[in-house]
Design goal:
2 helices, 11% helix
Length: 193
């Protein structure tokens, strides 16, 4: 007896069905969704086997993708030569943000250290970042941020970050009741497919 090759494996179909059921159940319990869109472009230039130059550009659209919020440009110089499991870097971010009709700027020098390892066939990266935030017409602030990322061979499974957003394929769903923290930082889970 021959088996049909067009049938999908039962385990994979059950996983997607379970995921869809969980999302639908949770969606009914949340007070409201606000969609933000954050497209990001990255250009990486290897300078030699141990040095890397990177430029990132983020745009942010909020209010259900109906209003431009900000533009962020990052410039990084990373060094991979200290150890196979360690990457260090220095960077600079320039932010132009729009709040109603007012525009503000922010300069943000940054330092990174990322520790990389493998656990049970998955890649694990723990990145620590120190930022010095120079926001126009506000006090200067030092900020520490941490991000733990778990990856498989094919895709990034999840990332736990001190950012106050959750992303799914660059589409942001802000959950106001869960994420409002009066200006502090909160650790949440972000899924990236």
């Amino acid at each position: 007896m021959k088996h049909s090759s067009s049938a999908a494996p039962a385990g994979r179909g059950r996983t997607w069905s379970l995921l869809a059921a969980v999302v639908l159940c949770l969606a009914g319990r949340l007070p409201a969704f606000e969609f933000d869109y954050w497209p990001k472009a990255i250009v990486t230039v290897p300078l030699d086997p141990q040095w890397q130059f990177r430029v990132e550009e983020w745009l942010s659209f909020t209010d259900n993708v109906g209003r431009f919020k900000d533009s962020q440009t990052d410039v990084w110089l990373n060094y991979f030569g200290l150890a196979d499991w360690l990457c260090v870097g220095a960077g600079y971010k320039k932010v132009y943000a729009q709040d109603d009709d007012d525009w503000t700027t922010e300069d943000r020098p940054m330092l990174d250290a990322a520790v990389k390892t493998k656990v049970g066939g998955f890649g694990v990266t723990d990145r620590s970042r120190l930022e010095y935030r120079l926001v126009q017409d506000e006090d200067e602030v030092w900020r520490y941020r941490n991000r733990l990322t778990v990856t498989s061979r094919r895709l990034r499974l999840f990332s736990i970050s001190s950012r106050s957003f959750s992303s799914l394929a660059y589409m942001m769903m802000s959950l106001p009741a869960l994420m409002r923290n009066n200006g502090g930082t909160s650790n949440i889970l972000s899924f990236i497919i």
